[in-house]
Write a structure and sequence with these properties.
mainly alpha; two-stranded antiparallel sheet; about 65% helix; globular
C-alpha cells in the first residue's frame, strides 16, 4: 500500500479532532493537523525528489498564491503577526494542497482513503445527528471536561426545530460543508456495501448542521450526480451542454436581473430571507474593502462596514480577497477550474468505474467551491478544501493505465475488493 494513503488517512482523522485538542505555542493556537502538515513537507519534498512528478499549471499557481500570502501579510502586519499568520495560512492552504498532490498517485489510493475514512466519518456524523435532534452539544463539551480545556462551539442556535450541530468543528457551517462534499465522492467512487453506505449517510448528516452553505453544497452535489446519471443514458445530454446552459444562465442573470448571479445563488441557497439579505450586505461592503485594497488586502485588520454589522465574512473567496488581495483567490480559483476541466476531459478516456470516480471528484470540488460563497472556511474545512484541490489535480493528470492498473474497484458481496480491468486502447 502507498504510504501516502496512510498519511492522508492520518490527516483525515486529525481533521475530525475538536478544537479542545489545539495547542497554544507562543500565543498562537495550533491544531494537531497543522503539526502533521508542517512535518509532511519532508515527505512532499522526498516524494517529488524520488518520483520527480512534473509540475503542472495549478502547481505553479499555488506556489505563487502562497508567496503572495507571505508578501501581503508582510506589507499589512507587524512582524510577529506576519510570521505566525503566514505559516498558518501556508500550512492550511499550500502545504495541504501539495501534500495531497504527493500522497495520492492513483484512483486506487483515493478508494483506499475513502474506505478507511468511512468508519470515522460515519461515527462523527451519527453524533452530529444526535446533537441536532436532542438539541445538546456532545463532542466538544465532553472533550472540554476530559481535557480541562475551554473554547470550541457550544452556543445554542436552532433552525427548523433542530440544533445547529457542530460536532468537532468550530462552527456548524464548517461541519456541514465538510460532510456535504463527501456525497459525490462516495456515490461515484465505485465502492459498494458498508463503505459506500457509511460515506453517503455521513454526507446526509450535513443537513443536521442546518446551514445554508451546507444546503447549497449538498444540493449542488446531488443535482450534478443526477445530471451525470442522465449523461450516461441520454446521448444528447453532455457536460459540454451543461457548461453552455450554465454560462447562458449566468450571463442572463447578470444582465437581465437586478440581483445578479451571486445574489440569486445566495437567495435560493439560504434557509431564510434574513440570512440571504445579510450575505448580500457582506458582499456589498466587502467588495468595497477589496476595491480600496486590491493588491495586498488588509491582513487580519478589521474590515470597514456599518457599525451594526458583525465581523464575520460569510464568503470564503471574498474573505481571501479582503485579507490577501485579489491575486491569491484568483490564482486558486483558476487552479480549481483547470483541475475540474482536466478531470472531465480525461474521464472520457477511462472505463466506466474510473470515469464515474473522476466525475465524482470534479463534482465534489465544484460543490465545495460554490458552497464557499456563503461560508468563511477556516481550520479543518479549509485544509480539506485544498487537499481536495491537490487530489483533483493529481487525478486529472493520470492516464487510463495509471488509474486502473492495480486499482481498487467495487466491493463484492463479502466486502472484499474486486480489481478493475484496465481499459484497453
Amino acid at each position: 500500500m502507498n504510504s501516502g494513503v496512510i498519511f492522508a488517512v492520518a490527516v483525515g482523522y486529525l481533521l475530525l479532532l475538536p478544537p479542545q485538542f489545539n495547542v497554544v505555542v507562543g500565543g498562537s493556537v495550533i491544531p494537531p493537523y497543522r503539526f502533521f502538515l508542517i512535518a509532511s513537507l519532508l515527505y512532499v519534498v522526498g516524494t517529488w525528489a524520488r518520483r520527480g512528478w512534473q509540475f503542472v499549471v495549478p502547481d505553479y499557481l499555488m506556489v505563487v498564491a502562497g508567496l503572495w500570502i507571505w508578501l501581503a501579510f508582510y506589507i499589512t502586519s507587524e512582524f510577529n503577526d506576519f510570521f505566525t499568520a503566514s505559516v498558518a495560512q501556508t500550512a492550511d492552504i499550500v502545504v495541504a494542497y501539495f501534500f495531497a498532490r504527493s500522497a495520492f498517485r492513483s484512483l486506487h489510493d483515493l478508494r483506499l482513503f475513502l474506505l478507511m475514512m468511512a468508519p470515522g466519518l460515519a461515527v462523527i456524523a451519527a453524533v452530529i445527528v444526535v446533537e441536532s435532534v436532542t438539541k445538546t452539544h456532545i463532542i466538544q463539551p465532553f472533550f472540554s471536561s476530559l481535557l480541562g480545556t475551554g473554547g470550541g462551539y457550544t452556543l445554542t442556535s436552532e433552525r427548523l426545530g433542530l440544533l445547529r450541530a457542530a460536532g468537532p468543528f468550530p462552527h456548524p457551517i464548517l461541519a456541514g460543508v465538510f460532510f456535504a462534499s463527501f456525497l459525490p465522492l462516495y456515490w461515484l467512487s465505485g465502492l459498494r456495501a458498508w463503505p459506500r453506505v457509511f460515506g453517503i449517510a455521513a454526507a446526509l448528516a450535513s443537513f443536521f448542521t442546518v446551514s445554508s452553505a451546507a444546503l447549497l453544497a449538498f444540493t449542488m452535489g446531488a443535482g450534478l450526480i443526477f445530471y451525470n446519471w442522465l449523461t450516461e443514458r441520454i446521448a444528447n445530454v453532455t457536460w459540454q451542454l451543461f457548461f453552455i446552459v450554465f454560462g447562458l444562465f449566468a450571463f442572463a442573470a447578470e444582465l437581465g436581473t437586478k440581483s445578479g448571479t451571486f445574489n440569486l445563488l445566495v437567495r435560493f441557497g439560504s434557509l431564510n430571507s434574513d440570512s440571504a439579505f445579510y450575505r448580500t450586505l457582506i458582499w456589498r461592503f466587502g467588495t468595497q474593502n477589496v476595491v480600496k485594497n486590491p493588491w495586498f488586502g488588509i491582513g487580519y485588520s478589521d474590515w470597514e462596514r456599518p457599525v451594526w454589522m458583525g465581523s464575520s465574512i460569510d464568503h470564503y473567496w471574498l474573505l481571501m480577497a479582503i485579507q490577501f488581495g485579489l491575486v491569491t483567490p484568483v490564482l486558486i480559483g483558476l487552479a480549481i477550474i483547470w483541475a475540474i476541466v482536466e478531470l472531465l476531459r480525461n474521464s472520457t478516456h477511462s472505463n466506466l468505474v474510473d470515469k464515474r470516480t473522476q466525475i465524482g471528484l470534479a463534482i465534489a470540488m465544484a460543490s465545495i467551491a460554490l458552497g464557499a460563497i456563503s461560508v468563511s472556511m477556516w481550520l479543518a474545512a479549509q485544509v480539506w478544501f485544498h487537499m481536495l484541490m491537490g487530489l483533483c489535480v493529481s487525478m486529472s493528470k493520470m492516464r487510463s493505465g495509471n488509474m486502473t492498473a492495480g486499482a481498487v474497484g467495487p466491493l463484492n458481496r463479502s466486502g472484499a475488493l474486486k480489481p478493475v480491468t484496465p481499459l484497453q486502447s
